[in-house]
Amino acid sequence: MSDLLKLSLDEVSAKLKGKEVSATELAQEAFAACQAAQPALNAFTAFDEEKTMAMAMAADARLARGEGGLLEGVPLAIKDLFAVEGVDTSASSNILKGFKPTYESTVTSKLWDAGAVFVAKTSMDEFAMGSSNETSNTGPVVNPWKAKDSNESLTPGGSSGGSAAAVAADLCFGATGTDTGGSIRQPASFTGTVGVKGTYGRTSRWGVVAFASSLDHPGPFAKTVKDSALLLAAMSGHDPKDSTSLPNDVPDFAAAVGQSVKGLKIGVPKEYRVDGMPAEIDDVWQKGIDWLKAAGCEIVDISLPHTKYALPAYYIVAPAEASSNLARYDGMRYGNRVEGKDLVDTYEKTRAAGFGHEVQRRIMIGTYVLSAGYYDAYYLRAQKVRTRILQDFHDAFDKVDAILTPAAPSAAFGLGTKSDDPIAMYLNDVFTVTANLAGVPAMSVPAGLDKSGLPLGLQVITRALDEETMFKVGAAIEDSAGFGFKAEKWW
Amino acid sequence: MSVTADDVRRIARLARLAEPEDRIDTLVGELNGILKWIEQLDEVDVEGVQAMTTPVAFPLPMRKDEITDGGIRDKVLANAPKSDEGFFVVPKSVE
To answer: EC number(s) of the enzyme (chain B) (predicted)?
Structure first.
């Protein structure tokens, strides 16, 4: 493998436009690197070499005519939740195993329109329900990072674990993910990559397998903040096929990268200092505060009083919406069917065989909280608590321009160490889930390594529709952190 | 609130999930653990609070009532577990 794959998206894009490298050559390298890493990392669920090479050749033709788009010739990996026409799209679930969409998701369409080249589908927690990528029907993805002097396999985080691992291991130049409670930002923190979700509705959900519709945010993984801004801009924009898609124009997010943060007010919420949090998380947070102070920001102590209620509210709203969304998997129109003695028996057998335990557990919780007599006590109350959480953010953003927090409560943990306790697993999203409930933009930026050499991320949250300030602050952290660390290659 | 084994069987039926008998006790434990944890929400004063619908308020878009897609029968049927002569084939549902 040459060093080409180690470049950032922005750097390789310049080489493609300068004809120093062809899209075909690059696609071959990325494809070969993904295949070579697959036995060790298990990050991918599907390849289509013919499609990859055809897209790369078309990109070369456009580049030769001087017509290349923003992402022309850049190989990207796609989370298995996005419909890619003709390529297996199963949400890492047995119930959809072998499903080949006859259509393309809006987000991937936009990426291909910008010239990007499909390289592989990436593994994820089944239906995006998980924080460790262990509920995938193709088995856990392994984090390219290992702790110093240890050979233990670590989780890349979840649910978008395959995408995070693929970017961290330099197998592609970016990847798509979806973030419903932290499924982009927590894996980004665990793998030393940049992970972003924009304002709710910035990116269309059309053609993305639905989990919890009011919380699902498609977004990118990237190696740098600038790359993530380029990717989010390419993915965003109004889509008439998604009624929650924002009609607003998409600013040039990348133009915000590198702009001065002097004079910005940065909020530090006291409620994010949770019990039992490792001292190293606190340390990296303090470093972030110091960096931004040194860059001319004003640090302001703030309070987001309803933070502790975010996760319990999430675990009502998300399963409720999931139980409705997943009702469509009944073995009739698509997906797999298990024949029973009658129609109901067929439904029940099909769903029991097709869904894994975590998905079934969440469907049951969702069904229960929506069932007659419980709707007001659970779902309606949770939606009201959600309004309280949004109000917390509104109050905070009266005083500050951005909020700085840790992205995850720990570094990457060992595979299998948390899978027996659903609530311990859910707590992974304690810092990220508030931004999903409130729909505000948030990103994770690599900020440092813990004492065992594992990456830790910092989270930047801004007002709805103000992704530009988020990228500005994110880039300032990236600059000061001088992260530049990569997992040592063992795969 | 907590659930019993019978509640779990009823929920499974509502959710159209054939849960084997030997999974019921495990599910009772797991569901009760999660429901107990969720009970914290009772501490929040939600008196007079509107349920959240959207983070960014904008009027729901209207469009002309016209056909914008269609004529793709074969594509629609392409992933059907069973189809025949342009139709989905499903188990008999009316006796």
So the answer is: 6.3.5.-
